Every structure is written in C-alpha cells, then in structure tokens.
C-alpha cells in the first residue's frame, strides 16, 4: 500500500500504519482471491482519509472517505453518509456543504462518506449502464466494505446510515432490505416508493444524468421495482431507530438574499421539497399504521437545499448517537 499524499502529522501516520497492519491481517485471513480488500489509503488530514477498496462486486477500485474522531474509546460504531443525486465524483458533499469534518471531530464514531455513484440510489443494478457503468452499491456497502473498515479503523460492527434526497431514499432502502444491519437510519427530504409515481420519479432522476433505469430495476412491471419500495416493505425497519424530515417548499430561514443559491433553491428546491414532504408523510403514515416508532420532523418551511440538510444532520444526531451507543452497550 502506498500513500500518494504526504503524511503531515503523527495522527495520519498512525492511521496509515493501522491500515497497513489491517491489510496484512487481511492478506493472511483471506484465502479467497476474489475477496474485497483495501488497496491503499491516502490521508487528507490527520483524521480524514481517502480509502480505496478493490471491490469484486463493482469490478473496480472504489473510493470512500473516512472521518476518524479526534479522540474516543475504541472499538466504536460507524455512520455511513450517502450523497445526493449528483454524487461528487472526487469527494462527498457532506464535507463541502455541511461541514461534516468539523461536526464529527468530537463525536465517538467513524464516519464513512461515499464518493461518486450519481443517480445510483446506492443499490444493486441489474446490469451495467452504458453511461453510468457498473453499480453494485448495496453489495459493496452492506457486504464488502463494513468488515474491511471495522478491521482497519477499530469499528465495533454497529452501523447507522443517513442520506439526503436520493441518498435518503437509498438509506431507507438499505435499512428496509437488510433488517437489523443498521441500528438507526435517517432520511432528509427523500421519496420512499419505487412503484407508481415513485417509479416515474426514479426514472426521471436516472435519465437526468443520461442513464437508463431499465438497467437498474428492469422494465416496467419487473418485480425488482416493488422489491425496492420502502413504503411497501416498511416492516423491515422495525427495531431500527428512524429519523425522517422534510420542509414544505416554502421559503424559510436559509432562503434569504444573502444566499448565493437563492434563485435555485426557491425555483427548483421549492417544488422538489413539496414532493419530498408528501413522500415523507406517506412513509410516516405507513410506519404509524404498522406501529413502528419514528421521529418525524415536518418543518413549516424550507426548500430542497443544503442548509436545511446540514441542520437536519445535527438535529438527527442525538437519535443516531443514542441508537449506536445503545447497541454498543448491549
């Protein structure tokens, strides 16, 4: 393993040494030459790392970024943060638009940030897309990645997942389709159905980046569409701590003239958030009907834009932290 970026502190050095040792252990433990392995680690700072994983499912080396706490006991739980539909190909928007690096500095948790995967919904596609490539994100995130990162960065096996917009739907899909895999899940401004109007919405999102949703869940009527419908499969969320939020699309505290993205957030983000609010209410109603508790924050204002998602990450953290620590204590 080599580090392309210079190591600027003892903290980064120790992090890379830990991965070297974990990699050596993997080499001994893995008898399957087709198993996922950490290819290399490149420190951005002493606790913010680029981790490159050779993924058999994806058929390539996949980058994720890992935030380590400044201090705290180990082993510790892990929070996976999923991006929106554009999914920055060289980073993760939670770091650039929501200061995830600063916010989690004093939190006793490892944070894993996806990199890339535009309009992927972080799920397993049926086949490679000519424009978007091979997407096997569910396998990567639920099977390949967690044991590698737990071994390398002192994880205790306890996980939570959260995301915004596309990432919100993806987070709830992952949790519902893998009952018990995540102790908590949070979705900010997402839609949670993949049938009927939900299928139409998904197809439009995928097409907006040049992809073909037939490659994701098949043609209309394919059972895969219904299999990924969170509302229909909400029972899979039982015993998982749940946080859902959305605004109404009306201008709120962050939609002011000193916001450089005001026009975009109001003209586009307003209608999008109206849809997200309806979607969130639908899932919340389904959870209530099933007797599954959830914390639901339906704000009176707010558009489909980053300042609100940054707020919601902070608002949901107490629920996520309590669920992670409860599982760890038990």
Order of helices and strands: HEEEEHHEHEHEHHHEHHEH
- Range of strand content: 15-25%
Mean pLDDT: 91
Number of E strands: 9
- CATH architecture grouping: 3-Layer(aba) Sandwich
How would you sum up the global shape?
globular
Number of helices: 11
Structural class given helices, strands, pairing?
alpha/beta
Q: First CA to last CA: what distance? A: 36 Å
Query: For this structure, what is the CATH class?
Result: Alpha Beta
Taking pLDDT < 50 over at least 5 consecutive residues as the criterion, the unreliable ranges are 1-8, 20-31
Task: Output the strand order for the largest sheet.
Answer: 1-2-3-5-4-6-7-8-9
The radius of gyration computed from the alpha-carbon positions, rounded to a whole number of angstroms, is 19 Å
Helix coverage percent of residues?
Answer: 25-40%
CATH H-tier superfamily = Alpha/Beta hydrolase fold, catalytic domain
Largest sheet entry: 9 strands, mixed
CATH topology heading: Rossmann fold
Task: Explain the overall architecture.
The protein is α/β, with parallel strands linked by helices and 330 residues long. The chain has one domain: Rossmann fold. It contains eleven helices and nine strands. The protein has helices at 10-29, 93-97, 100-103, 137-153, 166-177, 197-207, 214-217, 223-227, 262-267, 269-290, 306-329; strands at 37-43, 48-55, 60-67, 76-82, 110-114, 155-164, 184-188, 241-246, 295-298. The protein has a nine-stranded mixed sheet, with helices on both faces. Strand 6 (155-164), helix 5 (166-177) and strand 7 form a beta-alpha-beta unit. Helix 1 packs across helix 4 (137-153).
